[in-house]
């Protein structure tokens, strides 16, 4: 019975691996009719997300990571109220009709709904869930081992099982606990990240200047949970600690200015608590200090910093700089592998 019950899982895994191998064979090559979709259409929530998707598609085509000879499009949802997948589908079909007329009916089309910002997986919020790196075909990525995706780690650094490091650089004196997520970060100074820490850095363009901000919290924090009044923010939790207590630790006052956006929907998502810095490494170091202050119940004042919410970080995000940072890491890894 045990062997029989395991068969469906094995069959699904084998089928997935076959499809991945087939897709790998098509990457960077012109596809013949019927080998792939004629059109791949991706939906975006707004103009900024549309730009981010187009830039990443361009990079992937340049690096020959996608099949060639296919028409790739990004269609942005109309501004205003959310229209859901159904409304987004209708808008995408209208865009296709404008581009191809009645001819689009003869095409095989893959429509991928990827609008919206991931509040459950915020490291995918900036560049989109559709472009999130997944550890397919990487046997060392499992619950009892760490998963390293396109990152450069000093041989003296340590990463505990269950943690994911993506598009990051870790120095020699960095220790990452279990079940952490580190994304887009540069940690060069001595740092000890407690288990279940979440750290994600974003490049920002503010007043035409390049800045950086790093969101740091717990992987189990509910960023979507919201309250309607300032008196109720004690119901929110940051790394398992009452959010009101965290504000005391950071020497921040409870006012409406503490939150961006809708003042009747107060959450960790729109709380202005993350410092803006001039360098990526300083940004990570500062946010780790605020995180450690909560864990150690020791004061760390954020008063002297310009503070942003995650919501605002996504508004100011500099997609081009984040892609450039990832590309630099990719080139370094490629060069190092070529010398082995």
Automatic annotation (TrEMBL):
- What InterPro entries does UniProt report for this protein, alphabetically? GDP_fucose_pyrophosphorylase (IPR012887), Trimer_LpxA-like_sf (IPR011004)
Record bears the keyword Transferase? yes
Q: Superkingdom of the source?
A: Eukaryota
Which GO molecular function entries does the Swiss-Prot or TrEMBL record give? nucleotide binding; transferase activity, transferring phosphorus-containing groups
Q: Which UniProt keywords apply?
A: Nucleotide-binding, Transferase
One short Pfam name that applies is Fucose_pyrophosphorylase
User: A biological process (GO) annotation for this entry?
Assistant: GDP-L-fucose biosynthetic process
Q: Keyword Nucleus: yes or no?
A: no
Tell me which Gene3D superfamilies the record gives: Hexapeptide repeat proteins (2.160.10.10)
Sequence ranges assigned to domain GDP-fucose pyrophosphorylase in this UniProt record? 101-137, 140-278
Residues of the signal sequence?
none
Per its record, how is this protein called by name? Fucose-1-phosphate guanylyltransferase
**Which source organism?**
Monodon monoceros (Narwhal)
Designated gene of the protein: FPGT
């Amino acid at each position: 019975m045990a062997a029989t019950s395991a068969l469906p899982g094995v069959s699904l895994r084998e089928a997935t691996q076959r499809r991945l191998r087939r897709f790998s064979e098509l990457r960077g090559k012109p596809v013949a009719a019927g080998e792939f979709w004629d059109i791949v259409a991706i939906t975006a929530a707004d103009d900024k997300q549309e730009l981010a998707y187009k830039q990443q598609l361009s990079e992937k085509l340049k690096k020959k990571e996608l099949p060639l000879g296919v028409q790739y499009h990004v269609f942005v949802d109309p501004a205003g109220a959310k229209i859901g997948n159904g409304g987004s589908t209708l808008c995408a079909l209208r865009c296709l009709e404008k581009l191809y007329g009645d001819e689009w009916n003869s095409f095989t089309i893959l429509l991928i709904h990827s609008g919206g910002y991931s509040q459950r997986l915020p490291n995918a919020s900036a560049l989109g869930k559709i472009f999130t790196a997944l550890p397919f075909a990487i046997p060392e990525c499992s619950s009892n081992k760490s998963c390293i995706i396109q990152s450069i780690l000093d041989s003296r650094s340590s990463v505990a099982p269950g943690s994911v490091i993506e598009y990051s650089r870790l120095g020699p004196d960095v220790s990452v606990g279990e079940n952490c997520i580190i994304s887009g970060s540069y940690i060069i100074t001595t740092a000890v990240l407690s288990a279940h820490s979440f750290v994600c850095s974003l490049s920002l363009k503010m007043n035409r200047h390049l800045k950086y901000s790093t969101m740091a919290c717990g992987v189990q924090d509910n960023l979507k949970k919201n309250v309607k009044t300032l008196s109720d923010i004690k119901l929110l939790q940051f790394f398992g600690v009452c959010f009101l207590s965290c504000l005391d630790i950071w020497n921040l006052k409870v006012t409406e200015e503490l939150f961006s956006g809708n003042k009747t929907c107060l959450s960790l998502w729109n709380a202005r608590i993350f410092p803006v810095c001039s360098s990526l490494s300083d940004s990570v170091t500062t946010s780790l200090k605020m995180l450690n202050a909560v864990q150690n119940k020791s004061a760390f004042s954020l008063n002297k910093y310009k503070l942003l919410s995650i919501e605002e970080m996504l508004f100011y995000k500099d997609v081009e700089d984040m892609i450039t940072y990832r590309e630099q890491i990719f080139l370094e890894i490629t060069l190092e592998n070529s010398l082995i």
